[in-house]
Design goal:
The chain has about 180 residues and is an alpha/beta fold. It folds into two domains: about 130 residues, Response regulator (Rossmann fold); about 35 residues, no CATH class. Helix content is about 45%, strand content about 15%. It has seven helices and five strands; from the N terminus they run H-H-E-H-E-H-E-H-E-E-H-H. The two termini are about 30 Å apart.
Amino acid sequence: MTGNHPLYKIILVLIALTAIVFRLAEPARAAAANSGQIAILLSDSSEAYLQQATAFKEEVILPCQLFDLQGDIQRDPGLKDRLFASRPALIYALGAKAAYAAKLWTKDHQEIPVIFAMVLNWQRYNLLDNNHNIVGIAAEVAPGTQFANLTMFSPTVKRIGLLYSPYSTQILTQAKKDAA
């Protein structure tokens, strides 16, 4: 999906609206009074994350600064300090590692809102547990949509297999409901 795709622009608008809602909340107002900058935390410097970060920066009016975990939360021990030194009004975390790092790093900074995106199976990371400052955009396709696509392209398919793990219980429950 490129930056010109209509769904892509809708997602960016939803992200921006979510950021605005967070900015209206009291903790976000306190953080915004001190800064106004958005910290974009990348899991790594892959093209997918960089493309999303670039598109986001083009759509928001606040200044943004990139912070890259380089694939490992321990690779750059000073990254967390540099991020907090920028006094962000919002952290936009792209990818699972960035989202998890943002959760850990803001445990004692609940006044800084965090939005995560591009995290597959985000529930397994317990990103929302004990943190009231985190929201995210699910990267999964609903099972009902997957079934509709499957039957559209292969109408003769009557049975499908599913790889299961304890982390996919919620998806499996939804898939059973959608298939009924």
